[in-house]
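To: structure subgroup
Subject: Chain for Friday's discussion

All,

I'm putting the inputs and outputs inline so they're searchable in the archive.
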Amino acid sequence: MIDDTTLTNLGSIEVHTTTEGGHPVEFWAKRCIERIIAVSDEAPEDVKNQVNEFKNNIEKVIELYMQNAIKSDRITINNKLEKAGHKESADLIRKL
């Protein structure tokens, strides 16, 4: 049996949709930062400002590394397709 306290401990559920594609890197970086860094509503205003500036800076770093990971993965896929004799498919991946 699931009691009421179990349900309240699950946290909130959010749904984010897109049209004709996945979410961009910026979306995922923001979700990542929201899970890692938080500041209390009761914190002094100068502390909130400092934390929010830090969050923005870290978000940009995460975006950069996520873009690099995507590029690296595409290079790997491209090379594997070429090696398997699928040059046309590899060219399409390269153009993404």
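Points worth raising on Friday:
The radius of gyration is 20 Å.
The mean pLDDT is 89.

D.
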